[in-house]
Amino acid sequence: MNAPARIHELSIAGLSIHSRTGPIVRDISLSLRPGQPLTLLGESGSGKSLVAQAVMGTLPPELTASGAIRLDGVDLISSSPDERRERWGRAISLLPQEPWLALDPTMRIGPQVAEVHRFVRRQAAPQSSALARTNLTEVGLGHAGALYPFQMSGGMCQRAAIAIAHAGGSGLLIADEPTKGLDADLRDRIVARLKQEVDAGRLLLTITHDISVARALGGTVGVMLEGRLVDYGSAEQVLTAPSHPYSQALLNADPQTWVGSAPAPSGDVVLGGRGLAKRFDNYALFEDIDIEVRAGEILSVVGPSGCGKTTLGNILLGLVEPDAGTVERRKGISRLRFQKLYQDPPAAFPPHQAIRKGLRDLVKLHRGRWEEVEALLERLRLQNGLLDRLPGQISGGELQRFAILRALLLDPVFLFADEATSRLDPVSQKEVVDVLLEVVGETGLGVLLVTHDHALAEKISTRTVRLARRDT
Amino acid sequence: MRRFLLARLAQAGVVAVVVGTLCFVLMRVLPGDAAMRIAAGRYGPDAAIAEAAEKVRQELGLDQPWPVQFLEWLGNLLRFDLGHSLVTGAPVIEELKVQLGASLWLAAAALLLSLLIGPAVGIVSGLRPNGWADRLGLAGSVTLRALPPFVLGLILMLVFSIWLGWLPPAGFGSWRELILPSLTLALGLAAVSSRVTREAIATVAKAPYFAFARHKGLPEAVVVRRHGLRNAAIPVVSYLGLQAIYLVEGVVVVETIFAYPGIGHALVHAIVERDIPMVQGTALAMGLIFVAVTAGVDAASAWLDPRLRRAQ
After folding, report:
1. How far is C-alpha B292 from the chain's CA centre?
2. Per the record's keyword annotation, is Nucleotidyltransferase included, yes or no (chain A) (predicted)?
């Protein structure tokens, strides 16, 4: 391993970030030392990513930072763009969000690591390749140098990004939502890897909305809300006895702390599958699965990524054909009343159309009444004013509640919620889940919840089906 | 690889039959007496034209019912026999060799020129979207693409041959005759490929992997060279396949304007003279070139983009 360039302290004092319309991050002060990782918690839009960008020097040009960010005494805010760029990869490394998108899709992983040695550390080509192999071996990817990013799992991509940080030898790691989109198992492994980085003497600044990541990393925790640091202290203190009500809300939103509230089935089977099997290429996702969903219950399907949970739900909806087995939907019910809730709310709405327009068209198409929409808005606690915004202009949690509203307009008997809350911050997740539970209780909707979050499944589902990842 | 080639061969076969049939049908439904046109093409329009036309009709079997003519033609095609030109009497394949060769030179020169102009303008535009270079590129692209090839050809001829007197206005023989027709085609091609490149570059420049390459500490030139160009080339190369269509359309018009003895020129003459075997042979050659170009583009795309290789 390249010995990291020793950095003794990153200190931020009175950092504010302004847009043209006013401050969006106010008066942040914190410090980071070897052996003491810092984790910033908060929902999207709380400004935690902006703090990381200010350290990195990648704030969008329309934003300006004031205050002081010192890396071993050198002020980063007053650096010129060239000086900032000089630090990238050498002093500060960024572990990107969703590294499977941050690695070049057309280049093998080995050269992507080797080029850091070659072009940043100015080594000869053969030397660079050899060093890259060492870096990959350090993160357990010694065998993977010839793979392309699309052939690797999310966890492997994240480890490749760490290998790249090792190659540069930088002393400060900024991990921006390093576990976004990963299941619990992979998340724990990435967190363990990050702790090793801390033990190796690197400074670690982690941005996340996942409390379990903060808990596992330990060190110092800061909680951000609307651009302010509302809580700051040791992990034990902030995560057990927070001083700010928002931090408390954040802790309460962690599914592990929820009171169980699984609904009881209120009716007969609405949908069932017998002997379902599905293969992709030569790879059997699952075989001989019997499953049924009754009215008024939440049936959870849990398991690691790639085990076929989503495919199972799509088979039940009739979106994918099973290789074997049959699906039976309750007789005499329109196909339209079997609905799906998607994982990524922004991807489930047309980006350039105000929400009102889409809902209005839907009501018109199915000869409904606009009053139904208004009644649902109230029931799902959505403000009327949001209707005239574009999907990108409202929060993920609000958008997912609009997706529920859209499905409810068709009076569904069955809803397939495909990781419907996994991209939301905990507080939004709690709101969406609460709304869903209410709807299930009131309408007798049968829900198939696909999730990788065991705690969530445990708290709200009537029954749980576990799928395992099968090896070829 | 073998599956790829076999699929392309099958595709070529289907194209051959479809193109041949379409030509056959279209030539039959054109108004006017084919025998009369052929006779006029051979002997010139004189007083004995009706007599000559009757001879032609019998000689070429044009008085046979059309299904017989069609099956005969199809049978010949299966034996790789394209027949003889009804007008000159020479084997179609010989005529094609000469004309196709000339056209391929023209098309290759046009493509090369367009590749020198289009992607270069596109890269400059795409690296700074909405900068002055981008706006200028857009204006130029819209203007050039809005001009039909024959207007553009005439303008170039006017400027470079008539006013400046630098280049010959028409003809065939040396590279000097090749410049104006190929530039006419190239400007039309570059007008669009520059915009496609611009979009590709702008998309790549916004991609997370492009930002990450910078955050790794790589110098800007290395970021563009190693992570920008290859990724941006993927849509541009697939677009080249579509440009082949424009080239065929353009070759027909441009060769006629510049009196350039290529396959497009030949096609126009063959249609006027109702030289059915020539029309069929020419169209067939163009169709097969299409298949070859598409196969080449697909192979190049697979080389550029490893994700496609796995999909195959």
Report:
1. 12
2. no
Strand ranges of the sheet holding A92-95, from the earlier edge strand across to the other edge: A92-95, A172-176, A203-208, A38-41, A220-225, A228-234
Domains annotated on chain B, with CATH: 2-78 (no CATH), 92-311 (1.10.3720.10)
Q: Considering chain A, what is the average pLDDT of its residues? A: 88
- Facing A106 at nearest CB: one of B212, B216, B305: B305
- Domain span at residue A380 reads 269-466
Question: How far, in Å, CA of A13 to CA of A68, rounded?
Answer: 5
Parallel/antiparallel/unpaired status of strands A64-71 and A10-19: antiparallel
Phi, psi (degrees; rounded to nearest 5) at A464: -130, 135
**Residue written as token pair 């993160």:** A139
A113: phi then psi, degrees, rounded to nearest 5? -85, -45
Put simply, whether B307 touches A (Cβ < 8 Å) is yes
Q: B27-36, B112-121, B125-134, B157-166: which has the minimum mean pLDDT? A: B27-36
Query: CB contact, 8 Å: B209 with chain A?
Result: yes
Would A384 be classed as within a structural domain? yes
C-alpha dihedral sign at B76, B81, B82, B84 = negative
Token reading at A188: 């724990």
- The two tokens of residue B11 are 């595709």
Contact A58 B215 (CB under 8 A): yes
User: Chain A residue with minimal CA distance to B216?
Assistant: A89
On whether both A174 and A284 belong to a single domain, the answer is no
Say which range, A101-110, A222-231, A257-266, A347-356, has the weakest mean pLDDT: A257-266
The number of domains in chain A is 2
Share of chain A above pLDDT 90, in %: 41
Say yes or no: B301 contacts chain A, CB-CB below 8 A: no
